[in-house]
Automatic annotation (TrEMBL):
Classification via Gene3D superfamilies: Trypsin-like serine proteases
Domain of life: Eukaryota
Record keywords, A-Z: Disulfide bond, Signal
Ranges for domain Peptidase S1: 23-260
Family to which this protein belongs: Belongs to the peptidase S1 family. CLIP subfamily.
Protein name (Swiss-Prot/TrEMBL): Peptidase S1 domain-containing protein
Range of residues in the leader sequence: 1-18
Amino acid sequence: MAFLWFAVLVLFAGSSTARPNRIAGGQPTTIDRYPSLVQVEFREYNYMWTQNCAASLITTRYAISAAQCFDGPSFQLAQRRIRAGTTNRSSGGLVAYVLGVTYHPSYLSNNYNDGDICVIRLSGNVVFSSVIQPASIVAQGSVIQESVPVVHAGWGTTRQGGPPSAVLHDVEIYTINNTVCAERYAQLGPSYRVTENMICAGVLDVGGQGACEGDNGGPLYYENILIGIISWGYGCGHASYPRVSTSIASYTDWIASTAV
């Protein structure tokens, strides 16, 4: 059934090189390079819509994002919508409203960020075009090796505490050994827990590149295959603490069973 809805690809990382392209420390790009990437807009003060997160389309009716982008004490479905098919933040493209959200059962079942993934049902079908396409996602159980080039893309700030980007940016970084990443974050306390359901990526001990504020829910790509959802981290492009993404390979079967 999953193959009727979106492409699920087997991924064995380690033998190929990602697209050479360089969000913090990144550079401007265009939506035709990432046509499955959409903005998640929040309605603020009951009238103003502003991009605060991102998501990835998987069908004409469903998208996936970080659960945290569709949560909170005052969260309402009417306060979220997506904007697809535009390079520019909060303008252009196609707007679709959110009809429903399904969180992974493990989300908020503990005090950490495990299970930070949700399936979003849109109020209507989006129309695919050259700049609006479904993502190809990694197969269940795929192993993402360390030190392979991957890409973050989004409209978030280009530095810690800075303003959001007016246009889409991307940056090339590298996957980091999960155990090493977990040991680094453990220095900050027990709430910074890295699990086997997460992928760390950055430029370890160098920093300066990676996802930033406003990029959560957006993609982590390996050769244009969606392998992660930007979830959490300490700072932006931190040398010691790389950004952490939800590993889609832990949830592909759940996505397939939910987005129907």
